[in-house]
Amino acid sequence: MLDKNGIAQRIAQELRDGWYVNLGIGIPTLVANYIPKGITVEFQSENGILGMGPFPFEGEEDADLINAGKQTVTLQPGASIFDSATSFAMIRGQHVQLTVLGAMEVAQNGDIANWKIPGVMVKGMGGAMDLVASAENIIVAMMHTNKKGESKLLPECTLPLTGVGCVTKVVTNLAYLEIKEGAFYLRERAPGVSVEEIKAATAGKLIIEGDIPEMKLD
After folding, report:
1. Between the CA of residue 115 and those of 47, 90, 148, what are the distances in Å?
2. Order of strands across the sheet with 138-141?
3. Which domain holds residue 30?
């Protein structure tokens, strides 16, 4: 199965030349480390960066240069830094071609819950609700099950929703799935993972059509 970097590497294969891409907190931030050769992508961070690069090497960090998750990052040549109002104008104006988010739960109809667990203190909902309300292409990066081994791909979300019917694809440590017609369509298996293992770990409606290929990670 995949680790967090493997999930990010598979999602990076979905990037296209010239796209503006927002990376959420957690696993999504790792996608910037795996841009396919031959394409140019502008990564946007909701705290006000356009042209965000990969994580810096140890000893080269700039404490004043951080992403939305307060991790130190680098800048690509020509990058811009601006205020949150401008950043969210870009998001709400649908100028971002792809949004990559983490999640605690995803439902088979594309609902996502990624901001709050009841009874657990959180700092706030962040910008996720703006992102899911404005983006047309949302990929979720997540583990297939929680720490108790329970599926996070469900018939319906049990946690407070961030967005409704908005997720298009999910990449987990077990599989790459497309969401359409109220179901998870299995498209690829993680290396060494069987279809039976994916079925056992998926509580939501899972559609399996023909032979499912294994992911190819460059």
Report:
1. 17, 21, 19
2. 75-81, 49-52, 42-45, 20-23, 98-102, 138-141, 169-171, 175-180, 183-189, 206-207
3. 4-207
Q: How many residues does the chain have?
A: 218
Whether residue 16 has pLDDT greater than 70: yes
- Evaluate whether residue 214 is within a structural domain: no
Q: 156 an active-site residue?
A: no
- pLDDT band, residue 121 (cuts 50/70/90): low
Contact 56, 32 (CB under 8 A): no
State the catalytic residue, choosing from 14, 46, 61, 181.
Answer: 46
Please give the structure tokens belonging to residue 153.
């791909």
Q: List residues bridging with 169 in a β-sheet.
A: 139, 178
**Mean predicted confidence (pLDDT) in 95-115:** 95
